Amino acid sequence: MNRDCHRLAFVSPTFLFPNDTGGKIRTTNILRGLKDGAFDITLMGPATAEQRCVWSADLARVCDHFVPWVPRVPLPRWRRSVDLLGRVPVNVAADRSAAARRVVREGLQAGRFDVAVFDFVHAAVLRPVRIDAATVCFTHNVEAEIFQRHADQSGGMLMRSIWASQYRKMLRFEGDALRRFTQVVAVSERDAARFLAWYGIQHTSVIPTGVDLDHFAWHEPPAVSAGRPPTVVFTGSMDWDANVDGVRFFIENVWPAVTRRIADARFVVVGRSPPRSLVELGHAAKNVRFTGFVDDVRPDVHAAHVAVIPLRVGGGTRIKVFEAMAMGCPVVSTAIGVEGLDVEDGVHYLCREDAQDQALAIIDLLGDAETRAGLSRRARECVERRFSHLEVARAFERACLRAVETAASRSAATGGEPLAQSSPREGVT
Predict the structure, then answer these.
(1) How far apart (Å, rounded) are the C-alpha atoms in residues 122 and 176?
(2) Between 4 and 418, the higher pLDDT residue
(3) Nearest-angstrom CA–CA distance, 200 and 345
């Protein structure tokens, strides 16, 4: 270890590999960019012996040291349902683990870290009672807002009630947890404004969403031909409720209008673990295919003529937007799909809210190679100029250094006593 480096502990509630969710991709890109910079990095997270072996090279690229805990055994559905009755939101309860809390507590006590970063606000459930270091929460979205939007979009009274209950619990947990961090990192100015308005959080740094421009190389959009029929693609983890809701809405309300005008159009859904009911809906529709998990989304995106992001709920920012733009695939999205991203409708993508407008935009793009090419070039230029993942990592590094400086100032103000920050109140942890 370079003795001039600060020491950073990074607590991830999930194993980062494979990179099959937006959160994992964002976190991994930032850690890769931080490596060999201002911090010596210790990553703490769940991992089996097999995962540590299979992904050892990838772990070495994102951290200097890896401290694992034994993952929790997945709970049966009935047991997970019981968590709906608990004090904390279900995604917080899912990360609560005695083994994880012990490893994090002992690791932070032994490590003499300058800063401890917790990935996602629900990772705050793993915080020790005392931390003698600066603390940073990396928020990928406003968690309470996601639950609120699900409650607004749910059709039945029971589901609205469940989502509304989860929203109230997350509102309490999120605000209580964030107020205990030295620094909060948000992924958009909009999220930072929401943290201020809802929770009074002023100690927020904003980093942009970034993309690995070398990995997601640009290709000229393909021509529509007999061998390559007009193709629309969606990428995203299909075990995430926001993606399931958006794809279901698209298949039921948008896709029929597209295929009525373009009979040979194809819709490809790329992402792990689609629910059976959604796959059956796709099979009943025309020319819809689910790939399930893939090792690499790039071939499917490069083969498509349009990428769609028909999200109606969700939070934070969508990495899939910049990945598609970097690869040259023209994007049609709802406002929520590009929320928090500094891109311009009609220049870098097409924003369409209702089903009819989405369908018309897709039909027009599939039939107009020149418009596809223009969007493709301008979008790639935009992400190249402002959204490289290396630039994002540097911004994250600066936020962590500010947290260290803030903690040192507070310690000096108290006469040099070690900085101690309490965890959220009993019942929250």
Answers:
(1) 11
(2) 4
(3) 32
What does the alpha-carbon distance between residue 329 and residue 283 come to, in Å, rounded to a whole number? Answer: 25
**Tokens in use for 256?**
């029929």
**CA 127/CA 146 separation, integer angstroms:** 23
Q: What is this structure's pTM?
A: 0.79
Identical topology for domains 6-210+389-413 and 231-386:
yes
DSSP state of 418: P
DSSP state of 222: P
Domain layout of the chain by residue ranges:
6-210+389-413, 231-386
pLDDT the model gives residue 32: 94
8 Å CB contact between 89 and 166: yes
pLDDT at residue 416 in the model? 54
Residue 47 to residues 16, 17, 105, 306: CA-CA distances in angstroms?
Answer: 9, 10, 17, 37
6-210+389-413 classified as CATH 1.25.40.20: no
Question: Are 7 and 42 spatial neighbours (Cβ–Cβ below 8 Å)?
Answer: yes
Direct distance between the N- and C-terminal alpha carbons of the chain, in angstroms, rounded to an integer: 33
Topology classification of domain 231-386: Rossmann fold (3.40.50)
pLDDT in tens, 238-255: 998 899 999 999 999 999
Torsion angle (degrees, nearest 10) of CA 317, 21, 146, 247: 90
Residue scoring higher pLDDT (82 or 416): 82
Q: Does the pLDDT at position 310 exceed 50?
A: yes
CB 27 within 8 A of CB 141: no
| Strand locations in 176-262 (E) | 183-186, 204-206, 231-235
Burial tier of 66 (Cβ tally within 10 Å: 0-12, 13-18, 19+): middle
27-67 pLDDT, tens digit each? 999 999 999 999 999 999 999 999 999 999 999 999 999 99
Q: Of 166, 188, 135, 179, which Cα lies nearest the Cα of 26? A: 188
- Phi first, then psi, for residue 326 (nearest 5°) are -60, -35
